[in-house]
Write a structure and sequence with these properties.
Oligomer: single chain
CATH class: Alpha Beta
Shape: globular
Helix content: 25-40%
CATH architecture: Alpha-Beta Barrel
Distance between the termini: 25 Å
Strand content: 5-15%
Number of domains: 1
Number of helices: 12
Radius of gyration: 18 Å
Number of strands: 9
């Protein structure tokens, strides 16, 4: 199984200790048979988040960085925060004696999956960034972050950025000229453009220019739950037409309730709209939202999806097969 979004790195927990708080860590990934987990990095987050309108004048991550003892450079540089988190992830991998692997290329993915077929205790992670504010206005920083191992970058998180508008921003505009350069650089480097949290105008602009598959890592559909956070049918179908994937989230804003049945029905809605080959899991574990189960209980979703009518082929695709296909297609072919 594979999941497209967890914020676990942000909170400073030891990934090798089974937590009593939060949702995901290596022991719980092993218990839940989660082979691949995308670990997302947030570099700036406004205080008192609002679903509809946020500006960039406040930032809770600065306080977290100071309180957690991050390097002084991270207190003022959003790019340095992303680079620091990539180094932390690598430090965990280095400590693991091969148990935890950071997957950066298609060959690395294939090697990991081949080895995991014989050892279910192996865990693969992919690094992602929420919000292109960490590019600090310069699309060339895509290369810096790609070199650090990041393989997914979204144009915006909870506020508008120099690259494009957020669904929760003040202006909610489309891609800027710098944003267009960011998309092209991502495509050239094997980095997925993630439209989760992007404004409708930015999503339309990305889909109009995309030459590689586009991803929505943790999202929902407005047909399931009609709000600013979720995708219209047009945008969801647009992602599928690029060959991309919709990661359906597990919290009430995107799936309409707080029970596992709500998650299953939201996934079934997406399958009905775009087809089983373009739907995946996008939990938002450790993202400050309530979800009905943690990583250790992921297998419980299997029965819930059977109950809402998914067959075995669709189940295999949604629970991990589509993510593997997407990563194989987009990730770099070599070092």
């Amino acid at each position: 199984m594979a999941d497209l979004h967890a914020d676990t790195l942000l909170w400073g927990r030891d990934l090798f200790e089974r937590g009593t708080q939060g949702h995901s860590d290596v022991p719980r990934m092993i218990e839940g048979n989660v082979a691949l987990q995308v670990l997302a990095v947030t570099t700036k987050s406004p205080r008192n988040l609002d679903l509809e309108r946020n500006d960039d004048r406040t930032d809770d991550v600065t306080l977290l960085a100071m309180a957690s003892g991050w390097p002084v450079a991270t207190w003022t540089s959003l790019r340095e925060r992303a680079l620091h988190q990539a180094r932390r992830a690598q430090a965990f991998a280095d400590r693991s004696d091969g148990l935890l692997r950071i997957v950066r290329t298609a060959p690395e993915l294939d090697r990991f999956l081949a080895e995991r077929a014989g050892d279910g205790s192996l865990c693969g992670v992919v690094l992602a960034i929420e919000g292109a504010q960490c590019l600090e206005g310069d699309p060339a920083n895509v290369d810096v972050l790609a070199d650090a191992g990041y393989r997914m970058i979204s144009p915006a998180h909870f506020f508008d950025t120099e690259m494009g508008g957020s669904a929760h921003g003040m202006v909610k505009g489309g891609l800027t000229e710098a944003g267009r350069q960011y998309v092209r650089r991502c495509e050239a480097r094997g980095v997925l453009v993630d439209i989760a949290h992007a404004s409708p105008a930015t999503i339309s602009d990305i889909l109009a220019m995309a030459e590689r598959p586009v991803l929505a890592s943790h999202t929902g559909l407005r047909r399931t739950c009609d709000n600013t956070r979720n995708l219209t049918d047009e945008h969801a179908l647009g992602v599928a037409r690029t060959g991309g994937v919709l990661g359906i989230g597990f919290w009430d804003t995107v799936c309409g309730g707080q029970q596992i049945g709500h998650v299953a029905r939201a996934i079934a809605d997406a399958v009905e709209l775009v087809g089983a080959d373009h739907v995946a899991l996008g939990s938002d574990w450790d993202g400050g939202v309530g979800v009905p189960f943690d990583a250790s209980e992921t297998a419980s979703l299997t029965q819930a999806l059977l109950d809402v009518g998914l067959d075995e082929a669709a189940l295999r695709a949604v629970m991990g097969g589509n993510v593997v296909r997407l990563f194989r297609e987009v990730f770099p072919a070599g070092a």
